[in-house]
Amino acid sequence: MEGYRFVYQDNMYWGSCEPCTASVFSTLVRSGLVSWKIGMRQAVRLAVKTGQPLDQFTRDSDFQKWCIKQQSRPRAGEKFAQLTTAAKLLQWVDMLKDSLPDFIFAVREFGLVPRMDKDGNPRKDADGNPILYRRRMQENILHLSGLFWSDYDHLPFDPRELYEKTKAPGYPWKTRLAHLTSSGEGLRLVSECIIGAGNIADQIYLQAKELGMLNVKGTTGKFVCDNSIINADKLSFCPRLEDILYINEDKLFNF
Fold it and tell me: Model confidence over 231-246: pLDDT tens digits?
């Protein structure tokens, strides 16, 4: 197997966390489906924000099938039917974002655990053996990667400007990956942990302070620095290839 340093998951809900090699990463960021989901999310959000016609999106067969599924849900379906077209579209593209492949940059390995059925019993294969998978849970972490990732979203300026700050003389963190977020309004940084600078929460705080981003509010009125990603098992949505601003493949994939 190729060298790897962190793991990935096919989706955020139930997939096994497997080694993310450079070739796996390359395949995912070049995926046509990933590109379509991110492109659709950005196009819908822009159209709603600027008051553009939404017909081109409501005619999409995937959107129409999704709406039928939402409306068929007991109780929730009636409430969904009352939403505006714009609200339905925004929910749809948020679902597209949530269905992207995910990277867990801070973890090199999760332990194997049995996959359970709906009644809480271990599922078994044809030979009667428990089906095992690497479940993304904090208590299931076996090895950390030495990386951490930070998220600065809905920035009130071009995210590339923030990335340029990471190249300033004296900036203490070594960047391994930098890319635009799926909204197109944010920057995600994957960095090497500084030994002695504390845990992931400490490193994110100190980095935001170094970049002058601690008290900056974004276009949504909230602080742009995401403080909810302090646990090592937090996942990061896959970007498109064209959204990658910088990557150091040697240090990102070799432990």
Answer: 999 999 999 999 999 9
Q: How many CB atoms lie within 10 A of CB 82?
A: 7
Does pTM surpass 0.70? yes
CA distance linking residue 64 with residue 59, whole number of Å: 7
Tens-place pLDDT, residues 37-85:
999 999 999 999 999 999 999 999 999 999 999 999 988 889 999 999 9
Residue 163 burial by CB count (10 A; 0-12/13-18/19+): exposed, middle or buried? buried
Quick check: 221 and 212 in contact, CB under 8 A? no
CA 150 to the chain's CA centroid:
11
Query: Could you count the other beta carbons within 10 Å of the beta carbon of residue 215?
Result: 10
Secondary structure letter of residue 158 according to DSSP: -
Assign residue 74 a region: left if phi > 0, alpha if psi is -120 to 50, beta otherwise?
beta
Q: Which amino acid is at 213?
A: M
d(C-alpha 166, C-alpha 207), whole Å? 10
Nearest to 18 by CA among 30, 4, 29: 4
In sign, the C-alpha dihedral spanning 243, 245, 147, 5 is positive
Stretch (H or E) spanning 236: strand 236-237
| Dihedral sign of CA atoms 32, 8, 190, 225 in order | positive
Report CA torsion sign: 148, 255, 184, 71: negative
- Segments in 59-119 forming alpha helices (H): 61-71, 76-81, 85-98
What whole-number distance in Å separates Cα of residue 242 and Cα of residue 55?
Answer: 27
